[in-house]
Amino acid sequence: MAAHGAQKLFGIFGGDGLTATGRGFAALGYRPGKVYAAIGGGSEFLGGIGLALGLFTPLAAAAVIGVMINAMATVSGAHGLWDTQGGVEYSVCITVTALAVAAIGPGKLAVDRLFPWGRGGWAEAAFAPFLGGIGAAIVLIL
Fold first, then answer.
1. pTM as predicted
2. How does pLDDT run across 27-62, given as a tens digit for each residue?
3. What is the Cα Rg of the chain in Å?
4. Which of 16, 67, 88, 125 is the most exposed place for a label (fewest CB within 10 A)?
5. What angle do CA 122, 60, 33 make, to 5 degrees?
């Protein structure tokens, strides 16, 4: 996820960068496109880094879940389930994985192990999709 966000934000790893990605977001109905591209790319980048490092894991999971909800609602949802037809399969897998990491905790080497939320649990498992869903709803409504 971090690399995917870096494609949008910085144009690395074969990405188009913020300006071109902003035009793509505008074509999807997000106005202003560049702002929403920065929000989406930032959520992917920071959420991906957070999940990889085990840093602010529930927030990182919420960021990834929110982005994936938006991707499913605006891009892949119209194509059905299977990824081979451009469907939601891959986005659902990423969403479930982020939720699982929030629920089971980030792992023994994670930075979050020093904090109460670093062990995972029901609260973290509820927090991530709740916050991600609210963020996605706000973006979709605006």
1. 0.93
2. 999 999 999 999 999 999 999 999 999 999 999 999
3. 15
4. 16
5. 130
22 — pLDDT class (breaks 50, 70, 90): very high
Q: Where are the alpha helices (DSSP H) in the chain?
A: 2-10, 17-27, 33-53, 57-71, 89-104, 122-141
- Cis link prior to 116 (omega < 30° from 0)? no
- Distance CA(107)–CA(100), nearest Å, equals 12
The structure tokens listed for 125 are 């498992």
Q: Name the DSSP letter for residue 78.
A: G
The encoded tokens of residue 127 equal 């927090």
From residue 72, give the alpha-carbon distance in Å to each of 80, 92, 119, 123: 10, 8, 29, 25
Q: Region of 3 please: left (phi>0), alpha (psi -120 to 50) or beta.
A: alpha
